[in-house]
Amino acid sequence: MSYALHRNLLKTPPQAVKGDGAHLIDSTGKRYLDASGGAAVSCLGHSHPAIIEAVQRQVEQLPYAHTSFFTTDVLEELAETLVKNAPGMGKVLLLSGGSETIEAALKLSRQYFLESGEPDRHLFIARRQSYHGNTLGALAVGGNEWRRESFRPLLVAGHHIAPCFEYRERAVIETQKEYGSRVALELEAKINELGPKNVAGFVAETVVGATAGAVTAVPGYFGHIREICDRYGIHLILDEVMCGTGRTGSMMAYEQEGISPDMVTMAKGLAAGYQPVGALLCSNKIVDTITSNSGYFQHGHTFMGHATAVAASLATQKVIRDESLLENVVRRGADIRKQLRNAFASHPNIGDVRGRGMFIGVEMVKDRESKEPFDPTMKLHKKVQTQAMDEGLLCYGMGGTIDGRRGDHILLAPPYNLDDAQQRELTDKFVAAVTLALPA
Ligand SMILES: Cc1ncc(COP(=O)(O)O)c(C=O)c1O
Q: Is the beta carbon of 210 within 6 A of some atom in ligand 1?
């Protein structure tokens, strides 16, 4: 009997007892190749000596100092590193997780408009099928219906437009450019519907993660979105909690879209899972406005800027740079997608293998031609995930890919330092799990 309130109250999960590079080991001694890093968290595997050493050193020297009294050398160094890696950003607020970064972004946006003399601006627009976290503000802006439904009476109104989801929503007669324009223009229509003077910001995952399975936008989409945000004076807030910190092959995923946002959030891989950390970065325009008005961001948490967490994150950034891991992310990520596409070339139920870098989505369908999804009650994504776990492979299955209810996909987010043997193990075990769970 367990006293822990587990996610599933009917089932206690296996006990993880040790991390060994890309593998996790449970209490029975079974080894699992961690091909999803939990949910795109463990980007350096589970036993990197440089991160362990950095955490140990920091705990011995100074585990924690409250940020209303002190800053620390690790906090300053991490802030400089993150800002210099994020084109267009001026300062960073260090927090403890993804949802916290979104809450802070919404409040910073609101405070900016209060102090810049546009007090009516308070509404946020996001995209259907997006996920921005489970706290009430983040859940309110998010567009995943299943996650929001039960808590709707507690949420402030959210406003949503179409995602940019080419596999599902581009019409056959449309070019990529036409499709990208059509869905970007939904933002303009929504701004006009809500009243341009009331809208504060647009929130979007640069590459959609958990809810849709590594969905990249069509080329030009984010450029168009940036243009609309500028025209109406609203903040573009990119959520890179899952897709940032190198996951897509560049430190910030937005670098590959040729734009920069007004704010960007990061978390998951920021300290590779060795400590919980989140970050909200914002432009100098926002910083300068608040500096020259109240001079104070009216927000804070006890554990923000936590010295030990920050030390783990700083060490993570150094390892990614010193071991040139982004090259591995780009090359091996493309290679894994290619291998999976080949392996499933004639599988009737694999509709799409997509993503960028080591952020890989595999969408499963009942019929490849029509893209008809499986009956959601079959929970196909769970079946594949469970089969993979039996094979000794961790991957992240999710249902509701299309509209929060229908559709199944698997997300793969292996460690950036994956080697040849581990890549083989990943593709072999994943193909075996899919083949057993979905007999063609
Ligand atoms: C894009 C995105 N934003 C925000 C969050 C929330 O992060 P956390 O679970 O750390 O609060 C998540 C978590 O999956 C996410 O994928």
A: yes
